[in-house]
TrEMBL record:
It comes from Vibrio variabilis. This is hydroxymethylpyrimidine kinase. It comes from the Bacteria. The keyword Transmembrane helix does not apply. Residues 18-266 form the Pyridoxamine kinase/Phosphomethylpyrimidine kinase domain.
Length: 276
């Protein structure tokens, strides 16, 4: 949906900062900007990280996260919110309370819970608070396969049939819709996601690209979807456009040379402007 620069939709990202620039707040701001919206941010943690990994995490005090939220919501017309890394149950509880207070039109939650190593980033009590307080407020949650398994207390899917078997349990989390991301099924030629709504589910197909530069894909996808929702697209169209955007950003990732490890996707790939 076209818009003039005078009424550019505003999207808030609530997440951690990635000093390497490939994930977290930095990826969110790039994705929101590249897809044609205005990005503002609330930082929940400061990480020391690069393409080789995370060396330190410094959580922001809850009171300061709250003051950041009050500052942006009291002045900016925030249409959509994307939530990423929330370090503990106290932060999750406060963010959910503020979402209920300010009631943005759209909420996308990327439940950042499982590290690449497979370790849980959130304690079990925090996961329970996330499920009880925040997920039921969401238009869309975007778990990858390990995160979905942690949310429902099940095994990590090994196939698309396994993904399908999770549908009913994921619906019971209470979000309006779930985008179950199949990127971890690395033996598949495609990287297919399952969009689960109240009465239907739809397999969204995409080609898998052979690249190690996929740092920040989850942050980027959820932010792009929030951006497209803010622009007035219906959920299914916003998810379709977001997946189209991340696929292109991954396909162009090797055009960048950033770091010695798992580099970022190319948020501003050639021809990216207003991909919708």
């Amino acid at each position: 949906m076209p818009h003039s620069q005078d009424n550019i939709p505003i999207v808030l990202t609530i997440a951690g900062s990635d000093s390497g620039g490939g994930a977290g707040i930095q990826a969110d701001i790039k994705a929101i900007s590249a897809t044609g919206s205005y990005a503002c941010s609330v930082i929940t943690a400061i990480t020391s990280q690069n393409t080789l990994g995370v060396s330190a995490i410094h959580p922001i005090p809850v009171a300061h996260i709250e003051s950041q939220l009050d500052a942006v919501f009291s002045d900016l017309n925030i249409v959509a919110v994307k939530v990423g890394m929330l370090a503990d149950s106290e932060i999750i509880d406060m963010v959910a309370r503020k979402i209920r207070q300010y009631q943005p039109k759209h909420l996308v939650v990327d439940p950042v819970m499982v590290a690449t190593s497979g370790d849980l980033l959130l304690k079990h009590r925090a996961i329970e608070v996330l499920k009880r307080e925040l997920l039921p407020l969401a238009d869309l949650i975007t778990p990858n396969l390990p995160e979905a398994a942690a949310l429902i207390g099940g095994q990590v899917p090994k196939s698309e049939d396994d993904m399908g078997a999770m549908i009913e349990q994921l619906r019971r989390l209470g979000a309006n819709a779930v985008l179950l991301k199949g990127g971890h099924l690395e033996s598949d030629d495609n990287s297919n996601d399952l969009l689960i709504e109240a009465k239907s589910s739809d397999l969204l197909r995409a080609r898998r690209f052979a690249t190690k530069n996929t740092h920040g894909t989850g942050c980027t996808l959820s932010s792009a979807i929030a951006s497209y929702l803010a622009q007035g697209n219906r959920l299914h169209k916003a998810v379709y456009l977001g997946k189209q955007y991340i696929s292109q950003a991954i396909s162009h990732a090797d055009e960048l040379t950033v770091g010695r490890g798992h580099g970022p996707v190319h948020h501003f790939f050639p021809g990216h402007i207003n991909v919708r």
